Each structure stands twice: as C-alpha cells, then as structure tokens.
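Thread amino acids onto this structure.
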C-alpha cells in the first residue's frame, strides 16, 4: 500500500472515530421555548365569539358564581361593585372583563439557570410535564402508587429531555410522604435535581406560602419580590364554584406577584353543557372571574387563562380524550383568551389508554397537535399522561417528550430564505438526477429534518436481529439511557443548606402525618 493511501486511510479512520465519539458523548441539551412561525387555527367567526362573550357576561350577572367559606373574597367583590347574596357573587356586565385588563399579556418565569427561563404569552409555547397522578407505571413493576423516588425520577427525565422546557409541578403524588409536608419534598426535588422553571404547591394556602419562601431562599428576596419565579395551577371547581383552598393559594401567589393558571376543570356533559358553545360560555365566565379576582388581590399579577377540556363517555361515565369536541372547545377557548389579552393554557399528551399503546398514541397525537394550532402558551401534561390522568408513565413520558420535538419543527414554519428556496440544488441536479450528493444537501442535511431519538426506522432484518422491540420497549431503553446519563446541575452549597434548614424547620412545625 502506498504512503498516500496509508495516510488517506488513517485520516478516514480517525475521522470516523471522532464522529463516533461525538455521537456517544453525553450532552444535556435544552431547547428554547417554542416561538410560533405558523398561524393559529381560528375556528369561530367574530359573530360567534361575540355571542359567547355576551352569554358569559350574562351568566356572571344573572346566575353568578359561588365563593364558599371565603368571607375575604366576598368583601373584595363587594368593594369592586359586585352583588353579594350569601356566598353567591353576581358580577355586573363589563366588571370582570375590565378587571382582567390589568393582567399582563406576557411575562417571564425565571429559572435558577437563566438560560432555562421561559416567556409565557404572545406567540410562545412552553411545554411542561404531566401533573397530579397518584399512580405510576413502568414495564417492570407495572401500575403502583407513586413514591418520592418515582417523583425524583420524573424530575430527572424532565431535566434530561431536550424538548421539555419546564420541570412542572406535581409530576406524580408521592404517597409515601405525608400530605402536609409532601410539597416540601417535591419542591426540593425540582430545585436540586433540575435547573428548569417549576410550579408551586396549591393544596393549602400555607403550602403556597412555603413555595414562595423557598424561592426567596433560592433566588433572593429582592429578586422574587420583583420577578415571577413560580407558576401554579388553580383549578376552578366547575361549574361556577371557587373553593376556598384554591382561592387561598391564588391569594398567596397573586399577592407575591407569582403566576397562577386559572383553569376550569371541564368534563363536557358532567361539569359543563354537552354543546361546544355552552361549554365555551362557562369556561369564559369562570376564567374571567378567576383572573379578575387575582387582579383584585394585586393589579398586574401574572395570570394564565386555562381550559382543561374533555368530554364524557355517556355509556361508562369515563372521560374521553383526543376527541373532536375537545379540540373544538380548545380552539375556541384560545380565541377567547387572545381577545381577553391573556396567555392561554390548555392541551397536553392526553389519553384514556391504560398502556402506552396505539390508543395512547392516537389520542395524544390529536391532543398535542391541537394544542400547537390553538395558540396554547403553556401546555401542562405535555408528556407522561396515561389512564385519564390517574397514571404517570415513565415510558409514555419519553415517548411524548420525543414527539415534542416534532412540535418544535412544525412551529418553525417554512424557511423562505435563499437556502430554503434551494434554487442552487435544483440547478445543480437538474432533470433525472438525485439530491443526495449535491452541495446543498451536504451543507444542510444535519439540520434539515427533525430526527426522532426514540422511534425505529431500521430495515426489518436489522430490527428483527435487535430483538424486534416495540415502541414501549424502545421507550424503556430510552428511560434507562437518560437516567444513566443524568448529571445533577450545580447548586450553591450555601443555598442548598439554607433550603434544607427551612424544610427541616417546617417539617418539625407541621408534624409528620399521612393526612
């Protein structure tokens, strides 16, 4: 072999080794929140929107809403000009909408790593994981009650998932931790195991206060007083009821200038009418009430208008997901929130399936695509949801998280630059050729197409030789890889120590019971 051939072969081998090393190196990537370059889908015309808005104002004025066991809320409404009868609040037309105007159209939620901070509102979409399931599932242990170790595992998966922008909140309910101190351990996990933004506790006002206090330790008191570092989920007890627990948490967060998602929990046919327009009327009335109340607590407090929407199977009574009706309500709710000037929360990887199977794939795909097109700004439950929200699945988490990359690509829109037009490629290849080796392809192939990090596109023979794994098995391997590659982000030891001291003190103060 000639010296020239030897040198050429050596260079080739070295380059191949370098490329293999690059592919195998652990890289913790975090995509920036989505900035849409595609239009929102506008389902309703102006006449339909005006009818729904007028009907919602009529509901508030004639039917009213209830604030049970909350005399302070009743006094706030009375002072604002509402009519109070017992615990029922009737809001004159125009009052709630007027109060909503002080809520910001966009705001920043800061993360402890500034590169992970997110902008909520406008053309942006922030993706956050599943929230609230009491059970977890994996391929080895099956379905079981969640533990704090399961919770920590989900935080790590969220941190390692490139396309997930937000660490979320109650990723699962760690049932081995007492309810009255569960929020402390969940927040400790979010703060120490990830550096993405996260959510605060809402199950009791004092737990919201703990969340704010822990963030003051993490970020500094002055920073928290002037910036938003927490988002929280405030569900409306639909229909038209605002319970004292949730409103107490909202009062804490709004007073501290921290963000709340005011989100009716709507199951069409059970907690809302069976029609699209009727449900949208109720959703708008409830959102306007909750947002307006947050502004009574503190004008300018950041708030997100939400709509958790599903319908009901009239035979079994079970909720259904990925249905046309839920999509129609979400599209309409997005239009209504934009007319209110509010950021919009809705959608997710919803499914009623018991396993991460074909049903889960169909229903979740319908829900995720609908969320992108409806103009959602904050998507809770974007990955990990199973069994109607009763279960958080490790395999489903990484399956969904992989598909979120496709949402990023769709949201980019169409590149109409000179590179995007590809006229050089068309001229170079001409009739009857192929584009695999042309200069344009060589220069752009690495970034031209979104690439799944989970799905299998190998030839049948290769797939069979590797064990013929289905998607759930591939997801199981993906979970193991992400956890194996996990590297805990640095946290200042002094800050970590102060957080531990706070949690120890609060644990001693509130006791240690399982209720």
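Threaded sequence (515 positions):
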């Amino acid at each position: 072999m000639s010296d020239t051939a030897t040198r050429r072969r050596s260079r080739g081998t070295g380059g191949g080794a370098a490329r293999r090393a690059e592919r195998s190196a652990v890289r913790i990537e975090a995509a920036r929140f989505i900035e849409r370059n595609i239009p929102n889908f506008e389902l309703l015309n102006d006449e339909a929107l005006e009818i729904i808005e007028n009907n919602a104002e009529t509901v508030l004025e004639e039917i009213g809403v209830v604030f049970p066991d909350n005399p302070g809320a009743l006094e706030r409404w009375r002072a604002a000009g509402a009519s109070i009868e017992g615990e029922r609040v009737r809001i004159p037309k125009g009052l709630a909408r007027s109060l909503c105007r002080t809520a910001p159209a966009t705001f920043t939620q800061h993360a402890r790593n500034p590169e992970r901070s997110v902008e909520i509102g406008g053309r942006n979409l922030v993706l956050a994981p599943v929230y609230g399931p009491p059970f977890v599932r994996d391929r080895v242990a099956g379905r079981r009650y969640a533990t704090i170790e399961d919770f920590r595992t989900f935080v790590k998966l969220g941190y390692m998932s490139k396309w997930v922008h937000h660490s979320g909140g109650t990723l699962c309910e760690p049932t081995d931790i007492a309810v009255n101190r569960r929020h402390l351990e969940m927040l400790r996990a979010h703060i120490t195991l990830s550096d993405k933004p996260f959510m605060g506790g809402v199950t009791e006002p004092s737990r919201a206060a703990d969340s704010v206090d822990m963030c003051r330790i993490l970020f500094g008191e002055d920073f928290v007083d002037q910036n938003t570092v927490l988002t929280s989920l405030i569900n409306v007890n639909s229909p038209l009821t605002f319970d004292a627990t949730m409103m107490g948490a909202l009062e804490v967060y709004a007073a501290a200038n921290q963000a709340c998602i005011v989100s009716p929990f709507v199951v069409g046919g059970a907690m809302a009418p069976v029609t699209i327009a009727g449900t949208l009327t109720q959703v708008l009335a409830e959102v306007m009430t909750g947002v307006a109340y947050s502004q009574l607590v503190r004008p300018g407090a950041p708030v997100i208008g939400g709509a958790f929407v599903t319908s009901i199977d009239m035979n079994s009574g079970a909720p259904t997901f990925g249905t046309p009706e839920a999509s129609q309500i979400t599209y309409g709710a997005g239009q209504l929130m934009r007319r209110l000037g509010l950021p919009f929360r809705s959608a997710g990887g919803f499914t009623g399936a018991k396993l991460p199977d074909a049903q889960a794939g169909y229903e979740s795909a319908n829900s995720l695509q609908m969320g992108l097109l409806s103009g959602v700004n904050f998507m809770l439950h974007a990955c990990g949801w199973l069994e109607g929200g009763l279960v958080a699945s490790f395999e489903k988490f990484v399956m969904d998280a992989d598909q979120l990359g496709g949402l990023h690509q769709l949201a980019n829109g169409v590149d109409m630059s000179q590179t995007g037009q590809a006229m050089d490629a068309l001229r170079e290849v001409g009739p009857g050729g192929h584009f695999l080796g042309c200069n344009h392809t060589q220069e752009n192939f690495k970034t031209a197409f979104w690439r799944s990090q989970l799905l299998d596109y190998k030839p049948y023979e290769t797939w069979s030789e590797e064990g013929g794994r289905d998607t759930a098995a591939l997801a199981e391997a993906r979970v193991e890889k992400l956890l194996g590659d996990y590297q805990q982000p640095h946290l200042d030891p002094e800050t970590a120590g102060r957080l531990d001291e706070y949690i120890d003190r609060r644990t001693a103060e509130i006791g240690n019971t399982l209720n």
